[in-house]
Amino acid sequence: MAAEKNGRDGGVQSLQRAFELLEHLADTGGEASLSELATLSGLPMPTIHRLIRTLVDLGYVRQNTNRRYALGARLIRLGENASMQFGSWARPLLAELVDEVGETANLAVLERDEVVYVAQVPSKHSMRMFTEVGRRLLPHGTGVGKAMLAHLPSEDVTALLTRTGMPSYTEHTFTDEDALLRELAKIAQQGYALDEAEQELGVRCVAVAVPGAPVPAAVSVSGPSGRLTMEAVERIAPVVQRIATSLGSTLSKDGVTV
């Protein structure tokens, strides 16, 4: 029985270490060498090599031509399905948000350097904003993206922007890194982000990061800027903050994971 127990414990430990290596790869931007993984994890090189080879064989890690290891394509399906399930679970709170503020509510997560919209509840107005669920955008040009970036270390934001660049969606999109970093500091202080026609002309968005989410996530309300005025923003922002906090609290309480 002792041998069986030790074997089972060893299997659990290997599983835990394998997932930790995947997270270390994600933290490095998706690619690292074995020596870098050894430094990050504190594990001996033979253990890392054994775990990585298993993950490569399963398709969760790939080895590039430069002999560095990267996250594998098999993770894409898992991440996308988990994100969509998270969106389905959160939809009742988004519906509550729409009932209170009267505008379209969205939920998005940060995945592979992109904002992915995973849920939406539309407003009842004849003129309303539709962001297709599953749509991917770069975070610097969206309210939800800026809300999430404002809660990341500045060096992580800089690394992300280096990888993605800062193309403009409209004439109002932030395309200068220093200006964006100043905006993110303001967002962190005031507790919500505004998208001032930065992703689509004529549209204003109020977005708040979800505290305690296992991956960066944000809730937003969007509508025509003529209806979603700055006076309306002052009324709506605290409601979006409350819904985002409720989402985060429920995640912590129920152990829901993305």
Automatic annotation (TrEMBL):
Acetylation keyword on record: no
GO biological process terms, semicolon-separated: glycerol metabolic process; negative regulation of DNA-templated transcription
Domain IclR-ED, by residue range, is 74-253
GO molecular function per UniProt = DNA binding; DNA-binding transcription factor activity
Cite the HTH iclR-type domain residue spans from the record: 12-73
Annotated transmembrane regions: none
Source organism superkingdom: Bacteria
UniProt keyword list: DNA-binding, Glycerol metabolism, Transcription, Transcription regulation
Q: What does this protein do?
A: May be an activator protein for the gylABX operon.
PANTHER family in alphabetical order = HELIX-TURN-HELIX TRANSCRIPTIONAL REGULATOR, ICLR FAMILY, HTH-TYPE TRANSCRIPTIONAL REPRESSOR ALLR
- Identify this protein by name: Glycerol operon regulatory protein
